[in-house]
Amino acid sequence: MGGGVPRAAGHPLLRPLGPPRGGGVVSPRAAIGLDVGGTATKAVVCDEDGSVLARHQLPTPYRGAVGLMDTLAEAVAALERQVPGVPLEPTVGLAVPGIVDDTRGVAVKATNLDFAETPLAAQLADRLGRPSRLGHDVRAGGVAELRWGAAAGHESVMFIPVGTGIATALVLDGRVVVSGGYAGENGHALIRDPATGETVLMERVASAAAVARRWSERTGRSAAGSLDVFAAAAEGDPVAAAVIDEAVTAMADVLACQLTLVGPIPVVVGGGLSRAGEAYLQPLREALDARLVLSGAPPVVPAQLGSWAGAMGSAALALQGPTHHPSSPQTPSNPQTPSNPQSKEHSR
């Protein structure tokens, strides 16, 4: 992938994740990462080379934080049964959607999961009896794409899953931008709807769900998803072409402002619209190139890690060490798992 800045040592995400476990053959360190979605919870054991050693998926419960903790404990136990001989880092990473304050370990607001100022990191640490680290699902996905995926080899990335809604993970010089959990909510930027002139959220025009909805509203035909609209455009449907152009224009207007501030860092596109491939990515590149008069468009590429990126990124964050510990000593879910006594030192 062209453009961007080569990796440099010394940044929290880009330095080596930790020391070897002793003499002889060095085995990559591994950790558990959890990613809670609206309908499914994904869990992985991922090592620092990006190899997924085990994975597990189960439905996300609708029982509030207590029910969620039970589900996460079940997922952790299931993963440990899959890798009985693999020494795991004690910290477990967790990613959730919404407004997430990573530093405090708090889900500030997650409407779909009914969280409000919920201290998930502390709750998970207490439930498992082991350290934990909380992050945002999109930011975790961005970390994974930067370390192991489409932006590997760079130290900065803008990761944009374009699905039902739109949010962005911004990693600059190896540091995830959090801002109390509000960073990256560019789907909520206000724009003028090119069809109606109304002021609307950008994701109401530019998301994958919006592309399908806007085409259906204008044609009276149903669309299973945004890919149906791209298929119609490829067959010469002018309405489909107009809806896609509006989505690209809205996205480019907002992204160009962001990229003008942070520089022409790689843009990695995930979610439903990324599956349209160059039919979406090339117009987006061209629109950005026209707007970024100083730098020109940065690399704009599809994500590589798919729907497991959030869980992998949670594991990467766990490998950096914990932010929260159990409030009282408890028996860990896997008492035979050795901890790395140096991991806390190397997480600073």
TrEMBL record:
InterPro entries, per database record:
ATPase_NBD, ROK
UniProt feature, compositional bias: Low complexity: 322-342
| Stretches for region Disordered | 1-22, 318-348
**Protein family according to the UniProt entry:** Belongs to the ROK (NagC/XylR) family.
- What is the protein named? ROK family protein
